[in-house]
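name: query_chain
kind: protein
chains: 1
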Amino acid sequence: MRIDLHTHSTASDGTDTPAELVRNAAAAGLDVIALTDHDTTRGHAQAIAALSGLDLTLVTGAELSCRVDGVGLHMLAYLFDPEEPELSRERELVRDDRIPRAQGMVAKLRDLGVPIAWEQVARIAGDGSVGRPHVAEALVELGVVSSVSDAFVPDWLADGGRAYVGKHELDPFDAIRLVKAAGGVTVFAHPLAVKRGRVVPESVIAELAAAGLDGVEVDHTDHDAPTRARLRALADDLGLLVTGSSDYHGSRKSVRLGACVTDPEIYGEITRRATGAFPVPGAGGGLRP
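structure:
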């Protein structure tokens, strides 16, 4: 049983449409996939429609942009009610800030001598929620950097970098409260991925656990073996669920679907805790919780 609980589509910064993502997940031999686009649920309907005839179950979700003590972090939210008004309003505030933020990064890059244009970034983003990965891809197209990950450094788009621009982000404690009020389950995404920039100390993870955090994403390609062992021990001490996921973005990153997976018992516990929505099995059968 193979369960991947963190993927992205063109509804945010992935390169597969939601329908393509679902079909690719089935072809990769996955039994369960979670669609967790950044701050949006816009891809859910298309993904659900594409399940027809597939032996695949879809977990609806989102990856919420958060910040605490000046450090950015991502909160995976699963199986919440997408119509719950307060959480929906906060997601809209984050999404609405994405365009002026990206335009600000383009302006900073132009000041640094990079011949980037907003029209180029908008073309790359398409119908997705524009973000740093789209600006990074523009830098790759221009030959400024060789890969998207190479753009996430202090010289360019990393937190606090020369072309970085902040955006509206949730307080993670508020995110936990809002997701729980919407019947959902929260998992801290790649919490110790130091290659991405600053991470929160373990004391903050403990505070989040005390505030109702359900789990931490341990098995992730940005966590090496010692980091995974450290996080597992911390999760055990704090009573947190341990998940594993690919954080798949299609061709924008080299990570493949199912690169890391979640234990079926953990998946079952996530579905038991959720009351806002339920996994959607494909017409071919799918894996029911």
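note: The mean pLDDT is 94.
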